């Protein structure tokens, strides 16, 4: 897709998903999420062509203007929608697929102990609500929904909704399969164990400061 084609598609996505968006000109001039995604296309290009310092400087410049921090190494597909955006952070090895929606205050971050792929993957059509914290090299499944303020530390299956701290599955979209329900119960236990490990690690690091 050409750069101009990307702008048109991105503006149309904003107008489709945000009832407050009235005109294309308004979206172009006033939506920080759109500007941050456009800037990331340039930062990511520089990153892939080994202009790493320049890529980081460019991304930090736009972080200042949009209050959205996207590492230039992150892979963000066309068709992603960032609403409001202030305080949103996307880490270096994060992947965000087409049609995903991210709201303000979301973190796609790492645990600090992983190597290689350290950040989450958000699959096509997934929605991550305001101030949700997605931590580690985990996957938010296709069309899954993460509630506001949720802390997610394990994979979220496709077509489910998770909420809370730690995040728990509260809805399976259109599914009643007993095997799915069993997987959900196991997932709840896994979330609790992972969160406990993270809290212990945080407490250990704090005690050494």
Automatic annotation (TrEMBL):
Reactions mediated catalytically: L-serine + acetyl-CoA = O-acetyl-L-serine + CoA
Pathway: Amino-acid biosynthesis; L-cysteine biosynthesis; L-cysteine from L-serine: step 1/2
Subcellular localization: Cytoplasm
Class in the EC hierarchy, top level: transferase
Superkingdom of source: Bacteria
UniProt xrefs under InterPro entries: LbH_SAT (IPR045304), Ser_AcTrfase_N_sf (IPR042122), Ser_O-AcTrfase (IPR005881), Serine_acetyltransferase (IPR053376), Trimer_LpxA-like_sf (IPR011004)
Main location: cytoplasm
Transmembrane segments: none
EC number assigned by the record: 2.3.1.30
GO biological process: cysteine biosynthetic process from serine
GO MF, one annotated term: serine O-acetyltransferase activity
Keywords: Acyltransferase, Amino-acid biosynthesis, Cysteine biosynthesis, Cytoplasm, Repeat, Transferase
Annotated GO CC locations: cytoplasm
Family statement: Belongs to the transferase hexapeptide repeat family.
Name of the protein in its database record: Serine acetyltransferase
Protein source organism: Streptococcus thermophilus (strain ATCC BAA-250 / LMG 18311)
